[in-house]
Write a structure and sequence with these properties.
Layout (H helix, E strand, L loop, with lengths): L1 H14 L3 E6 L5 E6 L1 H13 L12 H4 L4 E4 L16 E7 L7 H4 L5 E9 L6 H6 E9 L3 H7 L5 E3 L6 E2 L1 E4 L2 E4 L13 E3 L4 E2 L14 E5 L17 E5 L26 E5 L9 H10 L5 E5 L17 E5 L8 H4 L7 E5 L7 E4 L9 E5 L6 E4 L9 E5 L19 E5 L3 H7 L14 E5 L11
Pfam family, one: LRR_14
Organism: Corchorus olitorius
Protein name: Disease resistance protein RPP13
Length: 461
Amino acid sequence: MAEDVAERYLNELVERYMVLVGKRDASLKIKTCRMHDLVRDLCLSKAKQENFICNDVNNISSSTVGKVRRLASHDSFMMINHFKIPHLRSALFFDNTGQIVENLRDSSTLFNCLGIKWFDSDDDEVPEIFKAIALFLIAHRITGLVRYICKNFKLLRVLDFEGVPLIACKILADEDYINVPDDVFGRMERLRHLYLPKKILTKSKLKLDNLRNLQTLINFNTKDYRLGDLSCMKYLRRLGITTPFVVENFMEEDLNLNPSIITSKHLRSLSIIIGKDGSHVDPRHLTYLLSRCVNIYELELRVKISKLPEPQHISSNIASICLSLSELDEDPLPTLEKFPKLRVLELSDQAFTGNVMVCSAQGFPRLVSLSITSLENLEELKMHEGAMPSLQNLTIARCRKLKMLPVELKFITTLKELKLEEMPKAFKDKLVQGGEDYYKVQHVPSVIFQNCDDLVSDELL
């Protein structure tokens, strides 16, 4: 895949110190990067000498603009309406473009790439140029354009409806409902990244089976879309599901008898988030879904599941797990500590409803970051010596019943930062210098307390 080749080239540039890594994800893949200052200055200098780039809009001339090949605009770039740009090949807009792009086609016969970061329209139509060459479109507000866009924007690679409050596929027009066909995405075979609206009104489930090149699919649910269509997406890398998520006619006795869901071997990230209906996910359906995601390394579950799937049903490559609103009755740590490559773990907002969590010796061998937030019933966090030997960052927030930090924390010599947010003042006083538990954290280079002074333990209320 082209993205894999690009990633390989990027890693090569990093190894040569021409590009600096900003952030890495849980699997240590590069998430953000930036150019080295010296390399950037050199590139800008050479580009200006060749009239390849102009970043000073106050000194624009017809001779300068005439050689521009690639244009990026962060606000209304009205110079397009005043100059011919015969060599222009691509343009990227970060604002609502309005009338600006209408002259682009006339400016250059070589123009073949257009990106719009923000599109806002109440009109029935959009400029013809959008149909032929738009590369990606992030919609902010669209009234009555869903069918129009999907029918005419055949070359789109990215389509983002996520910021639109509501898309009615029964479009209200003069108080009559016009039904959009279920194959509204039928002509968008080149689409690679689709961010579906968070709320949609449909008469029947929309078809996505022709989107065979899709790599990103966000806000998918089984109420508005067909579950079986996911199996057609052989290159899917990132899947975001909102509830409801239901596997119809589920066969619990033999999971292999159920219809295939995920066939992509490239899937790396999976999230399931509670939708507007507030429904939970059947643990059996979750187990079946995860058992088909053999290569994922990021898992986010922000939905009630009551019970974690057994480790054998979850990819051993998992590097990041986020659990929220899960309402687990059983301690999740004995299950989660068995994943050998897990580096990031977040438990928040009643992910666990019990009182005690225990981490065994040698548990979480590669865990680097642990965040425990808003577990209202948590009273004890126990660790055996040898647990979490690689831990670097520990955050505990809004766990007001937690009595103390485990004494075994003093054995974790890799710990660089301990952050406590909105914890009771009595809890904080034990950990400051001179406190009875200070010896547990005195080896940590950075201990941060945020908004702990005014809170009182629930035991004193």
